[in-house]
Amino acid sequence: METDFQDISELENDLKIPGITPNEVMEKSFYGTHNRNWKSYLKSIEWDTWCKPLDAKSLLEIVREREIKSHPFNQFF
Prior knowledge:
Layout (H helix, E strand, L loop, with lengths): L8 H8 L5 H12 L4 H7 L11 H15 L7
């Protein structure tokens, strides 16, 4: 994972500060490191395979499948 930190332990040190929440660490990374560029911020996150962001085409297909399964007349499709 490529980061913009000078030292990778900087993030770990932020988590050790009493009273700082993970949300505040995320905001510090978003505003400070990535200069409010949400695309570069999302690219910096190491995604697991089960929680990768979906593209629009695959998301629409999943929604369509759910609608067909839950439709009252699904036995006729």
